[in-house]
Amino acid sequence: MQGSISRRSVIAAAFTAGAAPALADDTFPSRPVRLVVGFPPGGPTDMIGRIIANALSREFDAPFVVENLGGAGGTIGAANVARSPADGHTLLVAVEASQTRAQALYPSARYDQVQGFTYIRNLATQRNLLVVNPALPIRSVAEMIAYARARPGEVAYGGTVGATSDIGGTIFAKQNRLDLTFVSYPGGNQPVTDLMTGTLQAGFFTESTIAPLVRGGQLRALAITALARSPTFPEFPTVEEAGGGRLDILPWFGLAGPASLLSAVTLRVAKAADRITRSDAFRAQIETIGASPIRDSSPEAFRAQVEREIPFWIAWAEEHRAQLR
To answer: Which positions carry the signal peptide feature in this UniProt record (predicted)?
Structure first.
């Protein structure tokens, strides 16, 4: 009798184990999904998060609710997701700041950027512009380089340490052998204001932040800090086209979950995100914030991208002694 019961138990256990992924796949989501954004409301990451949350809500006919947990370059929100149950009901709007630069810039971030997460899909990239104060006699990248070389240390640009406003300037200066001065800000739009008033002379800012100022003449755009021109400003060349060297500074936004997320849930969310990013509606929505959809991505490709980028940012932080706490 004991042997018979044991065999039935083994068979039942095997069936249950084999059926678990399918069951999770069929029932997900069983309650509202938290979509954590590691930045305050109103910024680009929050905007992308709300667009994707609404789209996922339609795909799954269930609520995906944005929760803003801002601070420390997105690492507070990322750490929260890394500690959450791996059942798919807590996901992260993953950005390069928290997923590839945390180890380099935020030693207090207590999570593994690769092993601490399940990478689902990359969604979009956002464009940056190289801009100057319009009172300066600079109308091209070549003139910017000549102006800065003639005035070592006098041309200042500003932003947040470790953000693309900082990184773009350090790479541009190194490639063109320039002595530029970086002015650090805690965040917000003060660097843009200071550029307009002349406190700063140049900036590397997201297109969505400064597009109205460029159109209104308060700032002068010289080039796109990417490998392709912007559909919003096709008249501006890339930095490389303009002779300033290869500069590919594109903040990205993706979806991730805690480590060991059920593969069935990962694939369902990835397939839904794939349909969303290929839709005209998504492309039109994110174009309003100077972003473009990533048409081809997968869990494997997204994780590999994160792994490739981490060493670059560690080396960058060491070279520029950029470390935050």
So the answer is: 1-24
CA dihedral for 165, 322, 186, 184, sign (positive or negative) = negative
Domains of the chain: 7-125+252-320 (3.40.190.150), 128-224 (3.40.190.10)
72-96 pLDDT tens trace: 888 999 999 999 999 999 999 999 9
Q: Rounded to the nearest 5°, which phi and psi values hold at 66?
A: -70, 135
* Global pTM value: 0.80
Assign 3-state DSSP to the chain and report helix, strand, coil percentages, each to 5: 45, 20, 35
Sheet order of strands, 156-159 included = 181-184, 156-159, 202-206, 128-132, 220-224
Helices (H), 200-246: 207-216
Strand duo 252-258 + 117-126: pairing: antiparallel
Length of the chain measured in residues: 325
Report the C-alpha gap between 270 and 279 in whole angstroms.
14
Q: CA 52, CA 58: separation in Å to the nearest integer? A: 10
Residue with tokens 């080039």: 223
What are the backbone angles phi and psi of residue 49, rounded to the nearest 5°? -60, -40
Tokens 């996922």 -> residue: 56
R_g (Cα) of the chain, nearest Å: 23
Pairing between strand 90-95 and 33-37?
Answer: parallel
